[in-house]
């Protein structure tokens, strides 16, 4: 298991994000377009081994990611820092496992999962931590494990109001994110900016190479 101590600024960001999702989790989940990433979930399904183990990082209310995967016979573990979201997820997807965990301190052993999903999450993490987070994703995926990731399309790091609460947003330009993903050891399968639900994000499918070959 690998983690590092968070700096004071990262701790402050984490606490703001946690508190805000606790406040708005139910209203956000009730108003979210849960069908906007159907295509990506089916792409992911086609890349994963049958009955594989998948980690849903920032699992939110468990819909659509954990719910979709469980319905297609995958074993799902979801993690989130928001108690509100974890309660919703356990209610929405009772057959998945949900744990309270900080993305900056992933408490899983090496080679634990066949797949890892991190969507609409990385842009809540300070950019200085993005490479470390990606390194941990690589560590806990099995050889040939699949990563599904999305993040913002602009180079920015700001706080703004979101559903009337403060929220933190942080992203690199797509080419920088792609370099980071490759630098930590992933092979890109496909990547590009996609518009889903009227929003543009940079989407990546990547694979952890099998070093034994």
Provide an overview of this structure.
With 213 residues, the chain is α/β, with parallel strands linked by helices. It has six helices and nine strands; from the N terminus they run H-H-E-H-E-H-E-E-H-E-E-E-H-E-E. Helix 5 links the parallel strand 4 (113-118) and strand 5 (141-151). Helix 1 (8-31) runs parallel beside helix 4. It is globular and about 50 Å long.
- How large is the radius of gyration? 16 Å
Give the helix level as a range of percent: 25-40%
Shape label: globular
The structure class reads alpha/beta
Distance between the termini: 25 Å
Supply database-style keywords:
213 residues, seven-stranded mixed beta sheet, alpha/beta, globular, two-stranded antiparallel sheet, 9 strands
